[in-house]
Structures are given as C-alpha cells and as structure tokens.
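From the methods appendix. Each design record in this collection lists the tokenized structure first, followed by the designed amino acid sequence. Records were kept in a plain field format so they could be parsed without special tools. The example shown here is representative of the layout used throughout.

RECORD:
FOLD TOKENS (463 positions):
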C-alpha cells in the first residue's frame, strides 16, 4: 500500500444503538499504541490508531451535531465516513440522515453492517434498504464499499480498516504540514482548575507550545500545553492529529477555525457562499426547510402541496431530533413541524444553535408560514448580496495578498464585506476603482485577509 501524506480522518455515523460507540471502542482498544505502553488514553473527542504502520484518526464525538457544526464552520473535517447499520434493525431514520450528512459533506464512505453475530441479522435486507435510498453497495448493483462486522466479536474490523485505507489512498491524503496553520475545534469545555480546554484537529501546518491562537483577526489565547489522545504531551502536532490544547482565554466553539497568525480564518461567508450565489441575478433564494410530522400520511400530504418557493432538505416522521437540529445548522434550514415538537433537550439545543423550530396543529397555518418564509428570504437576500467573483490568481503585495478576480455576478465594490472582512483596495488594471462589474477582472485586498485559493468564489455583501 502506498504511504499516505498524512493520516486520514474518519467519522462514524449511523442510527442510535446501531453500534457507533461499540465500534469506536473496539477499534481503539485493539489498536491504540498507548495501551501497549501502559499509557492512559484520555477522552478528547478523537483518537489515533496505528493499523499496520498507518496512523488513522477517528473522531469519536458521538452524534451528528458535532459533524455538522464542524462542516458548517470548518469545511471538511472528516475525509471518510463509516456508515454503520445494524443488521438486525436495517435502515432507520438516522441512517437516512447520516447519508444526507455524508452527501452534503461530499466525502466517500463505507457501509459497515454491524451486529452480524446476531441470529436475526439480515445483511441482504440492509443492502436492499440502502438501494431503495439510491445507495448501491458493492455486490448489490453499485460501488459503495460494504463490510460485514461485529463490534461485539471483532469480526470484520480489520477488513473495515483496510477498506478505509483503500478509500484514503484514492482520496490522496496530502501532507499539508508546510502550509499555514489552521485547526478546527472538535471539542471544548471549561475544565475546573485548568481553564478552557479544547481539542483541535490540525487541518494544515503545525502547532507548538507558545504559539499564539487566533480566531479570525482576534487573538484568543496562547498555547500553554499540547496533549495527544494517548495522554502524552508533545511539542509539535502535525496535520490530522487531534491535540488537547490549554491556553485559550475563553472556551472556543466546536467548529471554530483556529490559526496561529491573525486573519487567516476561513470566512463563514465564504462557506455559506454556495447557496446564495445563484440569487444575485437569477432566481431568488429559496429558504431551506426540514419538515417533521406525526404520521406518514400528513408528511405525504404536506410534501405534495408545498410551494416551490422553499427547498426541502429533509423530511421525516417523528419528534425533532438532535440530528434535525444539526442538519438545520449546516443547511441554514427552518424546522417546520406538524403535530410534533422538539422535546426539552432538543429544544434547548435548537435555542443554543439559533435554529428556528415552529410547530403547527392546523395545516393551513403551516402553509401560511411556509409562504411567509419564502417572502422573508427573498427580501433579505435582495438587500444583502452584492456580487460574486472567482479567484483567478493570488499574489503578495506589501505584506498583503492581492486576489486577482473575475466578477461573475453582480458587482464587487470597494468597502463591501466578505464575511467579516472588508474590501480595502480595489483596482481594475492599474487604476483604483470604486466598483467592478460582471465580466470585469479586478484585484482586491481584504482586511483581515481570508485564505482564498485559486478557483474559490468570493461572495460580497453590504450589511
Ligand atoms: P450507538 O448508539 O450507535 O453508539 O450504539 P452502541 O455502541 O451504544 O450499541 C448499542 C447496543 O448494541 C449496545 O447494547 C451494544 O452492546 C450492542 N452492540 C453493538 N455492536 C454490537 C454487535 O456487533 N453485536 C451485538 N450483538 N450487539 C452489539
């Protein structure tokens, strides 16, 4: 097997009770080197194993919430997903949601059919269920890799790890240790006695003690200590390595991108860009909605009569779940319920994540609300989005970065914002300019700078 440039980062998704925790525990116990050394593996939200000489990073924050939050704020965190489906239970609502998450993240995945040790295990049914959702596994009309496992007995786990590594090879895990440092917060807490404690997963570059910590342009601390999941402290952490970091002034949020120089953060606006970019000159933006109902009949009825002014990102029967909230966060969706609600903890999570959850018992009120949503979104976007440009080249200038761009929609104007950064210089050719219109090329400087690469779309707005 070819050596990878860095460890692949793996996440496990699936329905509750299908065996995520058992699988992660089994892999960790069987493979963690620290155990052999007699070290204590601490729970920091991720761990690494050594599988036949190849390090693999597993994110073990359970549930989808973290996964979505990370994708939302940090772009791709996991390189590969393991979709776990219990062989005795088959595809369940959260299996479907997991598939949605994986599709949105755009990462490859392997299906792990778990609990094959049980007498009632029905592997064929799982494959058929998946095919019904358009996910065709190997040997069942498609090429999604599938491995039969038992987290309980250990059957198939090695094969699963092999498959993960094969996918990693195809994905080409680039060594990014020479690039500017950027790390994503995958877990954070206030530790009594130690202060804010966060686990960072390094996306590129390196971290060492005494490095300054920045969130965008804001300094948020200085590294006091770095601890690996094995419990050992380290002076140097490299890409795809999870490290527990002490030294933050405040507890950072899961999904925040942390850098060691100011202003290198990826703008949230840049990540949000995709869904709003079409709005500038063409059709108005459609708000995303998640529909939840009490029974299948009402769901069908609602879906059948929804106006096309909204975009349904997910719909299912049952109370609002944590993963609905997570999906709503990542897709900026409103959760619209008919005869169901969000329970206590889920409702609280919704409040924390600022997700709008609205419940109706009368169907026409629900439709009135949906109509209003469409109008609301149209107005908001018309006010805000000003232009979109594609980065053609980048070059340094007086310690700053100039982005050579082609305006692809609307206008790019001096003083407009991109995320939280401002366009502080705009030139067309050698001349300074106040605005550049569609199809014009221009050079812009952002303050604070954002880490755009060639080919990225820059979306500007005027809040
Ligand atoms: P999670 O909610 O997805 O994290 O699922 P857990 O790992 O907590 O597993 C749920 C239940 O299924 C637990 O009682 C596990 O002991 C059991 N379980 C997990 N994997 C297997 C397996 O391979 N075989 C059997 N028989 N039981 C399993």
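DESIGN:
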């Amino acid at each position: 097997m070819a050596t990878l440039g860095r460890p692949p980062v793996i996440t496990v998704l699936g329905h509750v009770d299908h065996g995520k925790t058992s699988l992660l525990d089994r892999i960790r116990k069987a493979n963690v080197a620290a155990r052999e050394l007699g070290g204590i593996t601490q729970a920091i939200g991720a761990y690494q194993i050594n599988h036949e000489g190849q390090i693999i990073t597993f994110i073990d924050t359970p549930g989808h919430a973290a996964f979505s939050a990370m994708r939302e704020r940090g772009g791709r965190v996991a390189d590969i997903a393991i979709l776990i489906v219990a062989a005795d239970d088959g595809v369940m609502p959260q299996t479907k949601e997991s598939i949605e998450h994986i599709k949105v993240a755009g990462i490859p995945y392997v299906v792990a059919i778990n609990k094959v040790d049980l007498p009632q295990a029905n592997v064929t049914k799982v494959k058929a269920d998946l095919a019904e959702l358009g996910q065709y596994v190997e040997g069942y009309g498609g090429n999604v890799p599938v491995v039969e496992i038992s987290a309980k007995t250990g059957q198939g786990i090695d094969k699963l790890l092999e498959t993960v590594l094969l996918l990693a090879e195809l994905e080409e895990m680039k060594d990014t240790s020479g690039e500017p440092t950027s790390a994503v917060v995958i877990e954070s807490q206030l530790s009594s006695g130690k202060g804010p404690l966060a686990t960072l997963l390094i996306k590129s570059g390196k971290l060492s003690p005494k490095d300054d910590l920045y969130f965008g342009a804001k300094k948020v601390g200085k590294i006091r200590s770095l601890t690996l999941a094995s419990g050992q402290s380290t002076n140097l952490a490299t890409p795809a390595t999870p490290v527990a970091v002490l030294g933050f002034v405040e507890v950072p949020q899961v999904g925040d991108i942390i850098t060691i120089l100011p202003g290198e953060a990826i703008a949230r606006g840049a990540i949000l860009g995709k869904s709003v970019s079409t709005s500038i000159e063409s059709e108005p933006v459609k708000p995303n909605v998640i529909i939840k109902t009490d029974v299948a009949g009402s769901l069908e009825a609602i879906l059948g009569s929804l106006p096309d002014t909204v975009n349904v990102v997910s719909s299912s029967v049952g109370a609002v779940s944590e993963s609905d909230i997570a999906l709503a966060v990542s897709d900026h969706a409103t959760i619209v319920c008919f005869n169901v609600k969000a329970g206590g903890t889920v409702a609280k999570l919704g409040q924390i994540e600022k997700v709008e959850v609205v419940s109706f018992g009368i169907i026409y009120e629900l439709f009135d609300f949906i109509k209003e949503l469409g109008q609301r979104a149209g107005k908001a976007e018309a006010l805000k989005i000003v232009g979109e440009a594609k980065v053609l080249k980048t070059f340094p200038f007086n310690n700053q970065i100039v982005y050579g761009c082609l305006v692809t929609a609307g206008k790019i104007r001096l003083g407009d914002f991109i995320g939280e950064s401002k366009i502080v210089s705009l030139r067309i050719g050698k001349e300074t300019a106040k605005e550049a219109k569609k199809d014009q090329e221009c050079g812009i400087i952002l303050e604070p700078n954002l880490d755009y690469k060639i080919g990225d779309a820059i979306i500007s707005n005027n809040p």
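APPENDIX NOTE: Residues 14, 16-22, 62, 114-115, 117-118, 150-152 surround guanosine-5'-diphosphate (CB under 6 Å).
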